Amino acid sequence: MQVEIITIGDEILIGQIVDTNSAWMAQQLNMRGFSVKQISSVSDSEQHILNALSEAASRASIVLITGGLGPTKDDITKKTLCKYFNTHLIFNDEVYSDIERLFKDRGYQVSAVNRSQAELPANCMALRNAVGTAAGMWFNVDGVIYVSMPGVPYEMMHLMESSILPMLSQHFNAPHIIHHTLLTQGIGESILAEKIHDWEEALPEGIKLAYLPSVSAVRLRLSGSGEDKEKLTNEFDAQLLKLKALVGKYCYGENNDTLELVLGQLLGGQNKTLATAESCTGGQIASSMTKVPGCSNYFKGGVIAYSNEVKVNQLNVSQSDLDAYGAVSKPVVESMAKGVIKLLNVDYAIATSGVAGPDGGSVEKPVGTVWIAVASRTEVYAQQFLFGKHRERNIQAATLTALNLMRRMLQGTLDVADYVVK
């Protein structure tokens, strides 16, 4: 079943708030076999709302609407729905009882303005709201289901989970849906596409792949849909195994995994410890590691060696190496990694040094040049990367790349060509 989502509110269009409602609804709907085909945001204007409703109904069987159900003058959704459906508002005693109870629990009396929230279009089914004063409204008109909900996220979520999603599942016979995401790092989208091209071309009907690239990472989302759940599951699992084998060492996790979580699990499982020595990333790698609960068991700390003085005095980097090769170099980043292992008495280390930008680059070392080293007590691996011109993206890319190199060192999948025993 095809769904459209309409969010109403000037605050969305002027960038005052971000529309998180649509993303959450789309995720919940998709999990239940409903396909969201379009999401629109419109202003608090009667004509804009009317146009959006008419256009959505021409394309979808289900139209979900959020926003504009408050008690103030600018909340015009109910009156606009009355005009769209050629009906009028009537007082709903049950909804008013809900409002009275909510106000009583908070120690207030219902005002005349809030009393008006119990007035609903005559042709709708009221959806009782236990956590707010605005009821939801369900319309079934000319073969299209329209559902209007408050824009307050926790109220919308309550109505979706308690009423709307179960009712939609009863009303429509939706297909079974499966999603699984593989998370990759260290390989570009186009190269990845070439690597799995033949497999992707041979995918059976009902199973498809989506590429979701971001800074220095690509998510591969495999999706399947079908009427026969068992048949779909068996075919989906077989294709997922093939994809995993093709992606191989570039896959660091699945679904909601993060690199810092995966790396932490590896360190914890091997009973090893990690520290960081960061220059251009400015502590971002350490910050990522400490997002994981329990990280103190394996992450011991780090040194932000932004200046050469700190590199020399704290990490024992050779001044002669700095003079000969510069701070952004293989010898220096290797020394940083080895230095922090000794300083903090850990098993492994990550080190970074680079030109984050937007200034400071040269012909030999343009903006985006970053050296990353990962090391154990006996080995060190260092590699140069060229990330780009944007400072924040360079820092993010360097952070993810460094975490992934450490993961691959722990798993024994680093490229041997640049792997040097020290």
CATH top-level class of the largest domain: Alpha Beta
CATH topology of the largest domain: Molybdenum Cofactor Biosythetic Enzyme, Chain A
Q: pLDDT below 50 for ≥5 consecutive residues: which ranges? A: 418-422
How many helical stretches? Answer: 16
pLDDT averaged residue by residue:
95
Strand order of the largest sheet: 2-1-3-8-7-6
Let me know the number of strands.
18
**CATH architectural type of the largest domain:** 3-Layer(aba) Sandwich
What structural class results from the helix and strand content? alpha/beta
CATH superfamily of the largest domain: MoaB/Mog-like domain
Shape, per Cα inertia axes: elongated
How large a portion of the residues is in β-strands, by DSSP E?
25-35%
Largest sheet: 6 strands, mixed
Helix content: 40-55%
Head-to-tail CA distance between termini:
61 Å
- Radius of gyration, taken over Cα atoms and rounded to an integer in Å: 28 Å
How many domains is the backbone divided into? Answer: 3
